[in-house]
């Protein structure tokens, strides 16, 4: 069994069979991660560079841990402190790294399409760890694994994606994945943060009333307000955002059922999500983080072409 694509650039390019294969392989790696000895030799002698042009905590640590658990050799590159500040182009940087015999590239970049551009120019397998406001495929895969662990098959599940849809690569990757796998999706939040092109191209339900979305869904994936990407005023203040669209304990208690709460992190506590919700039994936020390692092991393993794991 192998993936239909040589790279993981986005969920957009994957077939439902690819998604199932990654999730199934991730479940097997998750079993490995429960053992006292968590390391397997699957990617011994494979060299992977983690190329991070944007800040990251979870994704970067998670990829690095996944690589180490698979016995790969890893190099970490961050644009801060590199020759990027001296004017080196992306392609020059990567070609220099590849001439040191690197097999796979994990890449986060602020520009939409940066990993797609690289894939056209270099022979190594590329894994997109987030490109601008476009996609973050491994996040959507770990979200999917976390949903299936709580609720079973994705087909027919109702997922509300709430908040800053406009600036969120997590939202777009989730929308691709959930619609491909037969789940139902509703977008909720302020009208200024829900772009028309997304709702129309996927034919999704939209509501500006968060309570309505919560009453409808099985799972709410709450997104961070991405202030660093907003160069215009899209809502009045963080306090008012919390009052109108924030997920609070009181709001959840007013519902007729219990909804599973997800968030990709980092959380703006008290803005999109209140602390007592984030830290409650309804939240699977730390399961998402745990599942990230197994999902990234699966992606790296399947794209490496190794069959001897
Ligand atoms: C997300 C990202 O960087 O796109 N975080 C993550 O990878 N866990 C979401 C965000 O920054 O809000």
List keywords for this structure.
309 residues, alpha/beta, Rossmann fold, five-stranded parallel β-sheet, four-stranded parallel β-sheet, 12 helices, 9 strands, globular, binds N-carbamoyl-L-aspartate
User: How would the global form be characterised?
Assistant: globular
The strand line-up of the biggest sheet is 7-6-5-8-9
Radius of gyration: 19 Å
Specify the CATH homologous superfamily of the largest domain. Answer: Aspartate/ornithine carbamoyltransferase
- Number of distinct beta strands: 9
Task: Give your account of this protein's structure.
There is one protein chain. The chain is an alpha/beta fold. The chain has two domains: 141 residues, Aspartate/ornithine carbamoyltransferase (Rossmann fold), CATH 3.40.50; 149 residues, Aspartate/ornithine carbamoyltransferase (Rossmann fold), CATH 3.40.50.1370. Helices cover 41% and strands 15% of the residues. It is built from twelve helices and nine strands. The strands form two sheets. Strands 7-6-5-8-9 form a five-stranded parallel sheet, sandwiched between helices. Helix 1 packs across helix 5, helix 1 packs across helix 12 and helix 5 packs across helix 12. The longest helix has 20 residues. The protein is globular. The site of N-carbamoyl-L-aspartate has 11 residues, from helix 2 and helix 6. The site of N-carbamoyl-L-aspartate (NCD) has 11 residues, from helix 2 and helix 6.
Briefly say what this structure is.
The protein is an alpha/beta fold and 309 residues long. It is built from twelve helices and nine strands.
């Amino acid at each position: 069994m192998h993936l239909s694509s040589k790279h993981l650039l986005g969920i957009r390019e994957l077939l439902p069979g690819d998604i199932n294969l990654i999730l199934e392989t991730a479940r097997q790696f998750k079993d490995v991660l429960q053992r006292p000895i968590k390391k397997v030799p699957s990617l011994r002698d494979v060299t992977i560079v983690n190329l991070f042009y944007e800040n990251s905590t979870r994704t970067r640590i998670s990829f690095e841990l996944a690589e180490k658990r698979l016995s790969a050799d890893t190099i970490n590159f961050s644009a801060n402190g590199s020759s990027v500040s001296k004017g080196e182009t992306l392609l020059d940087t990567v070609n220099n790294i590849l001439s040191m015999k690197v097999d796979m590239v994990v890449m986060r970049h602020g520009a939409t399409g940066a990993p797609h551009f690289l894939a056209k120019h270099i022979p190594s397998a590329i894994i997109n760890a987030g490109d601008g406001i476009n996609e973050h495929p491994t996040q959507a895969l770990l979200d999917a694994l976390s949903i299936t662990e709580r609720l079973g098959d994705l087909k027919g599940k109702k997922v509300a994606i709430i908040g800053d849809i406009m600036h969120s690569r997590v939202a777009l990757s989730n929308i691709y994945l959930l619609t491909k796998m037969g789940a139902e999706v509703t977008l909720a939040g302020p009208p200024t943060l829900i772009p028309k092109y997304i709702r129309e191209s996927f034919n999704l339900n939209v509501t500006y009333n968060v309570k309505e979305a919560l009453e409808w869904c099985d799972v709410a994936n709450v997104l961070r307000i991405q202030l660093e990407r907003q160069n215009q005023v899209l809502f009045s203040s963080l306090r008012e955002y919390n009052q109108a669209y924030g997920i609070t304990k009181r709001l959840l208690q007013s519902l007729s059922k219990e909804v599973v709460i997800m968030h990709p992190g980092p959380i703006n506590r008290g803005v999109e999500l209140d602390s007592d919700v984030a830290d409650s039994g309804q939240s699977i936020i730390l399961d998402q983080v745990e599942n990230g390692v197994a999902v990234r092991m699966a992606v790296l393993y399947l794209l490496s072409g190794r069959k001897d794991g």
